[in-house]
UniProtKB/TrEMBL annotation:
Record Pfam families: GFO_IDH_MocA (PF01408), GFO_IDH_MocA_C3 (PF22725)
Gene3D superfamilies per UniProt: Dihydrodipicolinate Reductase, domain 2, NAD(P)-binding Rossmann-like Domain
A molecular function GO annotation: nucleotide binding
Domain of life where this protein originates: Bacteria
Protein name: Gfo/Idh/MocA family oxidoreductase
Native species: Leucobacter viscericola
Length: 407
């Protein structure tokens, strides 16, 4: 990092993998100066790596990186790189994150961080030993409506929280002709929809309510075979006609009963969580409903800028009020001037980049961190054990998370 004469701080950025998410991280860094000019942090896009020559070229000519390489180790060894975004496929996250920590680079990594609890813990230990800042791609927690919901709960506006219901239903694999990408192969992806979507939902629950202590889970694989997709030739959205069929090795659907702990407002709360990648109808219906003794609220990503709230038990007109995200909720006012003009998915990544770089600069650590990822992965691993053994499983508390634990 470099402190400039005008008081601003320049932070050198490295990128590993220039796919859709890598492009999104890059745009988020570039947009910081426009959305948060008072922040005084100036990301400098220094070095990108991708094994595909066309993407490496794109990193320089389109995204604005100063140089590009085919080997990610060159990014980690670059003395002008202070932070690195890890946007490679899931099975490479842990390997690269551990290498980044050992190289002394602060890192922002997409989830899941590892193919299960063990790999995630290895990253956590490496980050702690190196003393680097970590940030995790739990983007849904940054929606202004979610930030407002978190505050309502903490302030006791909904009363004592009794139960939560959450779902993350997507249709990206609803077509049985959908390609057998790496996401369906266990040694490349680990779990299926548990790690992919349920991990996000677990984070939302823990961020707003507190730690999940116990789970009882069930899973199913709806399509046991899919047409093979050669590595690097497409995405998990691809549809293949008359392809060679190969087995799906992980789950399409997962459901969990959960019991929470550790938060005075939500102590002993229970709930149900579901995730599916083969739902027909929902496109990206990622929702959470929270019920308390004095009210309730629900949010759905497909209507990201809305929150439905019912409060004031005994009021003359009970029921839900649609509340539009507006200035005063999270960082909404820095993106849009008033309610009704919506923020988008990309904006959540700008907020994520801001929180990450603030922590790197030694300011408030409001970013999700590797301990949050470890806690979520523990819950997912407990769910896998529970589904296999058909019994309740526990998840131990993790120190250093941003879970909503009351003081």
């Amino acid at each position: 990092m470099q402190k400039n004469d005008d008081g601003t701080i320049t932070i050198g950025v490295g990128l590993i993998s220039v796919g859709w998410m890598g492009q999104l991280h890059s745009r988020a860094y570039s947009n910081l100066r426009y959305v948060y000019p008072e922040l005084g942090i100036r990301p400098r896009l220094v070095h990108a790596a991708d094994t595909a020559p066309a993407r490496a070229t794109e990193a320089v000519e389109v995204l604005g990186y100063e140089r590009a390489s085919a080997d990610y180790h060159e990014v980690l060894n670059d003395p002008e790189v202070d932070v690195v975004s890890i946007c490679a496929p899931n099975f490479l996250h842990a390997e690269i994150a551990v290498a980044a920590a050992k190289a002394g680079k602060h890192f922002w990594v997409e989830k899941p961080v590892g193919r299960g609890e063990d790999e995630t813990r290895a990253v956590s230990e490496a980050a702690a030993e190196a003393g680097v800042v970590s940030s995790i791609g739990f983007n849904y927690r940054h929606a202004p409506a979610i930030e407002h919901l978190k505050k309502l709960i903490a302030d006791g506006e909904l009363g004592r929280i009794t139960n939560v219901r959450g779902n993350m239903f997507a249709d990206y694999s609803a077509d049985p002709r959908g390609a057998l990408s790496w996401r369906f192969i266990r040694n490349l992806a680990g779990s299926g929809v548990l790690g992919d979507l349920m991990g996000h939902l677990v984070d939302l629950v823990q961020y707003t309510l507190g730690p999940i202590a116990e789970v009882s889970a069930i899973t199913s694989t709806v399509y046991t075979e899919r047409p093979e997709l050669p590595m690097g030739s497409g995405t998990h959205f691809a549809v293949i006609e008359n392809g060679e069929m190969k087995p799906v090795e992980n789950e399409d659907y997962a459901g969990m009963l959960v019991r929470l702990s550790g938060n005075a407002v939500a102590a002993d709360a229970v709930g149900t969580l579901e995730a599916s990648r083969v739902a027909v109808g929902p496109r990206a219906s990622y929702g959470i409903e929270i019920y308390g003794t004095n009210g309730s609220a629900h949010w759905d990503f497909e209507r990201m800028n809305e929150l439905h709230i019912s409060s004031g038990l005994g009021a003359a007109h009970q029921g839900y009020t649609r509340v539009m995200a507006s200035p005063g909720m999270g960082d909404f006012g820095l993106f849009q001037p008033g309610a009704g003009t919506s923020m988008g998915y990309d904006d959540l990544k700008v907020i994520e980049a801001k929180k990450f770089l603030e922590a790197v600069a030694g300011r408030a650590a409001l970013n999700s961190n590797i301990q949050d990822a470890l806690s979520a992965s523990q819950v997912i691993s407990a769910a896998e054990r529970s589904a296999a053994e058909r019994r309740w499983e526990s998840s131990a508390p993790v120190a250093g998370t941003t879970a909503a634990i009351a003081d």
